[in-house]
Every structure is written in C-alpha cells, then in structure tokens.
Design brief:
This protein is α/β, with parallel strands linked by helices. The chain has a single domain, classed as FAD/NAD(P)-binding domain. It has twelve helices and 21 strands. A hairpin with a 5-residue loop joins strand 6 and strand 7. Helix 1 (33-44) packs parallel to helix 5 and helix 1 (33-44) packs parallel to helix 9 (342-362). The longest helix is centred in the C-terminal third of the chain and has 30 residues, at 370-399. It binds flavin-adenine dinucleotide (FAD). Flavin-adenine dinucleotide binds at residues 29-35, 52-55, 75, 77-78, 158-160, 194-197, 200, 218, 220, 268, 310, 329-330, 337, 340-344, 346.
Amino acid sequence: MQNTDVNLSNAKNTFKNTKAITEQQVLIAGGGHVGLSFALLLAHHGIASTLLEKNSYPTISPNDDSNRSHYLDSRNTALSRRTVQIYQEIGLWDELQSHACRIDAVQISEQGSFGRAQLNKAEERVESFGQVMENAWLGRKLLLAAQQEPLITLIDNANVIAVTQQADGVTLSFNYYGEEEHEQQLQASVLVACDGRDSTVRQLLNIGTTTYDYEQTAIVGVVETDKAHEHVAIERFSPAGPLAVLPLTDPDGDGNDDYQNGYRRSVVWVCPKGEENKYLADDAHFLATLQQAFGERAGKFVAAGRRGAYPLTRVLADKQVEGRCVIMGNAAHTLHPVAGQGFNLCMRDAHVLAQMMSAQVLKGEDIGNTQLLKRYEKARLSDQKRVIRFCDAVVHGFTHPNPAIKLARNVALVAFDKLPNIKPLVANYAMGLKS
Ligand SMILES: Cc1cc2nc3c(=O)[nH]c(=O)nc-3n(C[C@H](O)[C@H](O)[C@H](O)COP(=O)(O)OP(=O)(O)OC[C@H]3O[C@@H](n4cnc5c(N)ncnc54)[C@H](O)[C@@H]3O)c2cc1C
C-alpha cells in the first residue's frame, strides 16, 4: 500500500481553472445529488472544490441523451419551486427541464374516509407546485455538469477513511481504488460531508445522531396507467402508510415530442418493514395493491417497471458543524420521503452555505472559519426543524388508527379544502418558497 500526501495547492487539477476567485479550497466528501449540487453552487460563486466519491462514476458523453446513470436508482424526486429556482440561478435548469414534469394540482385523500382536499395552480396563482424528475436523469446531468466544470475536481473510487483538523485547515485521508489501491491525503480550508445517511465523516468526527426507525419500507418505481396523469399528484393515506403517485415525463412514449403529457407515473408505496419482497417480486400483485389503494383516481394501473426498496429511518445529526467541517445533505438530516421534502431541504442548505462562503471570500476571509460555519448552522436550523416536524406530523397524523383521530384528520382535510388563506400557506411551504 502506497502512502501519498497530496496538498491541494499542488494537485494536478488545481490549476486547470482560471476563474477561481480564491486560493482557498473546499473538500466535499460524497458525490451524490447533494455533493454534486453543492460543488456546482460553489463553482457558480467562483470557488474551487475537490469532490471525493466512494463509487465509480461512469463516462458520460454530452451527446448521449439517455436516462442511464451510475445510480441504480429507481427513485424520482419532486423538486420544489425553490430547488428549480436554485438550478435556474446556476444555469443548469435548461439542461434538466426536458425531463421535468410539472405538478399542476395536488389531490390529498385518505383510503376509506370522506376527507379530501385539492390544490390547483390556478387558484394558488403559481406556475406549478414543483417538477418531478427521475433520479437517473438528475444524477446524470449533475455529473456531466460537474465533469465539465473547470473549478470542480472529481475523484471517484475514493473512500474517505480519516479526518484530522489543524488550526488553519483540514486533512482528509482516503483509500483510492484506481488501477492500484493506495491511500492518499488532501488538505483544504474546509470539509463539507455529503456522504449520506450513514456518513463516515460524521462518525469520524464523533458526531452522534438521533435516530428513529419508522418500521416502514418505501417501494419506489415507475408505473403506467390507462388514464393520462394531466399533471396531477395524488397523495393518499392508507392504513399501511402514506402513498404518492406523481406525474412523469414520457420520453419513450407515443413517438411525438410532447414529453409532458403521458401515462407514466412515479409511485412511492410505503409498507410495513419486512413486507417489501412481495411488492418487489410480483408486478401483478403490486399493480393490484395500488389499484385497491388508489381506486379509480389514477385510472387503471396497467404496467410496473423496476422497483427499489428503501428502509425508512429518520437520522438527525446532533450537530452540523465541528471545527472546519460541515455535515450536509442526508448526512445531516435523513427524513421520511412522504412529503418530498428531503432533497429540497438539502438544496436550501447548500445554497445558503455557498452564498455565505462566497461573501467570506469577497471579504478576503477564511471560508473554513468555525464562526462562519456556526452562523450557517444557526441560520438553517429553523427551516430544518419546521420540515422535520411537518414530515413527522404527516406520517404519524395520517397513520394513527384511533377512530377519533381519524375523524379529526378528515375534518381537518375538509376544512383545509374549504377555508380561505390556509392553502396558499401550505402550498408555499410545500414548494419550498417559505423557509
Ligand atoms: C423513497 C424516497 C423518495 C424520495 N423522494 C424525494 C422527493 O420526492 N423530494 C425530495 O426532496 N427528497 C426526496 N427524497 C430524499 C432524497 O432522496 C435525499 O434527501 C437525497 O438523496 C440525499 O442525497 P445525499 O447526496 O445527501 O445522499 P446520498 O444520495 O446518500 O449520497 C451520498 C454519497 O456519498 C457517497 N459516500 C458515502 N460514504 C462515502 C465515503 N466514505 N467516501 C466517499 N463517498 C462516500 C455515496 O457513495 C453517495 O454517492 C426521497 C428519499 C427516498 C428514500
């Protein structure tokens, strides 16, 4: 095993950029959607970063328009309007939007109950409630943009194994599984850990977590219905848990170029832990179960694609800053996917931190300064707490079997549908515009 010390200021890719506005470097551990997005946000502000990803990235040709990516990820993400605004701000939305499907209306109801509510974009006077995109497409486009950005150095096959902090910097050690396996070190002003729910960096920094197991598994994938989705998202609460059917673009559909209108929908089906195999293995069973839960709202469920299973656990880091290190993305807060808030919250975090670092650079000050990072942590707490409370209220409120609580929540749904002024508040919140 070879041991190589690499100071970032000497690393081969450091000088490939000409527009960096600072000599200070940011290290990012974990190149999922949050790590890649954060690197792109920093680059937008002229800040260079080096991103280390444990897995191997594929070679992507800019002309290959397919949906394939290294993410064997059957998930789809509902991007809030705020997330769309952030991607617009960094000039990436033009690349993404061909595979983004608008949500024009949201229907909320409970299986076997009278309460229902509907949000319509015309009533709320918004362009849409958000956009749904396949993770494979999002991941592909983020990776391509990062590969093409001179201010970003991507190192894949790099598993972070140690972090040490000095007064003026942070040193990261990683095992590099290239042609020859060896250990390397990098130094920078600051380290941002976007290495997911089981974050290695968080553990290396001895940051604890508060964890809650929902005892549920989300089955996610794509289905086809015989009724066009007409841009309606359907949230349905069943005794098993909350379910969602979201509209998707139809790139392989009927041969015309109108990807927006079609019959493909994204499904998030939540079942008790341990019951996932029967929904994964058997298409007919999965389709029949969906039909029973959704009734005719979405039409007939006629075909099901590849599905993935995700055990649902809430993991909250006890703190998000330690010295020159920031914990971000799922590493900071992993949430229940019920309200489609997790990634959107991460994007707001990433946007704020990139802005604060940029302001610091413009003042000629240290971007890894602990006081700055603590100010970031404090600035983000109230939005994070609100989203966490919101997700939990939805999960627990709608799965409680007590008949009195069931009645109360159905009355609340009816009231929500009828009372003025409440819907715009909730709509703004769900769109990620209020934080
Ligand atoms: C079923 C489901 C549906 C969802 N739907 C939505 C939605 O509609 N809207 C929404 O806003 N959110 C949604 N979410 C949440 C969203 O998926 C997450 O918030 C988001 O994926 C978090 O991304 P991340 O980059 O922080 O973490 P991850 O995607 O876990 O990425 C972490 C990366 O770090 C790498 N890594 C790990 N350890 C190391 C190491 N030691 N060294 C180097 N690299 C390492 C990993 O390989 C990985 O690439 C959903 C979640 C689930 C489970």
